[in-house]
Amino acid sequence: MTETSDSHPRRDVRGVQVFDGFLDAVAQAAMVADVRAIARAAPFVVPVTRRGQPLSVRMTSAGLLGWVTDRRGYRYEARHSSGVPWPPIPDSVRAVWDAVVPGARPPESCLVNWYGPDARMGMHQDRDEGDFNQPVVSISLGDDALFRIGNVERGGKTESLWLRSGDVLVLGGAARLLHHGVDRVAPGTSTLLDAPGRINLTLRVVSDETSVPSR
Ligand SMILES: O=C(O)CCC(=O)C(=O)O
Ligand SMILES: [Fe+2]
């Protein structure tokens, strides 16, 4: 991929940078193959809350740290629940980070969310990381998703946009701690995946600058 953040058109929605169609069809297909390889090494799980409520998305991760939630609560872990270390973040995914947030520290975590046709994600902040000066980068693959952006505080007016396959979002700067969520997926709007649904990759720096993890 040769595009840079300077050459690719982007929109601003409440400070969230939206790169529409950042990945072309060939790049999307290659990234899906990379996601399948991640899932072979670290299979998707049904995450549950501390109270045992299943989330509607299935999750796995790549990178030094993966975000998990189970009966013990939510946290970053260096290993999949099977005991294997998370596979490395694919070069294709890392290249997106380098292109859209060139000054940022390297990503330590790539969360992979798999939405079936009925999956959603409630409004939340990404705030389990140690350095909120570092951005969050989110990549959409597969069916369209209705993404809602709120405010730093809970509640208030929100703004929604459809995310399509190949779109990339950056939550950085003043937008880093905005509430956000996915209201619904529109099954059958993309043919990228074998079945209706959507894959989201969320890249994050997890550590604070003084405690960078190593393997
Ligand atoms: O699926 C998305 O577009 C957003 C995912 C998300 O917000 C998260 O995993 O924290
Ligand atoms: Fe999030």
UniProtKB/TrEMBL annotation:
Residues engaged in binding Fe cation: 124, 126, 180
Record's cofactor remark: Binds 1 Fe(2+) ion per subunit.
Residue ranges of every copy of the Fe2OG dioxygenase domain listed in the record: 106-207
A cellular component annotation (GO) from this entry: cytoplasm
Cofactor field: Fe(2+)
Gene3D superfamilies: Alpha-ketoglutarate-dependent dioxygenase AlkB-like (2.60.120.590)
Keywords assigned: Dioxygenase, Iron, Metal-binding, Methyltransferase, Oxidoreductase, Transferase
Keyword Repeat (UniProt): no
Binding annotation for 2-oxoglutarate: 113-115, 198-204
InterPro entries for the chain: Alkb, AlkB-like, AlkB-like_sf, Oxoglu/Fe-dep_dioxygenase_dom
Binding site for substrate: 67, 74-76, 128, 154
Pfam families with a match to the protein in the record: 2OG-FeII_Oxy_2
Gene Ontology terms: biological process: methylation; oxidative RNA demethylation
GO molecular function, one term: methyltransferase activity
Domain of life according to the entry: Bacteria
PANTHER family, sorted: ALKYLATED DNA REPAIR PROTEIN ALKB-RELATED, NUCLEIC ACID DIOXYGENASE ALKBH1
Protein name in UniProt: Alkylated DNA repair protein (DNA oxidative demethylase)
Biological classification of the source: Bacteria, Pseudomonadati, Pseudomonadota, Alphaproteobacteria, Rhodobacterales
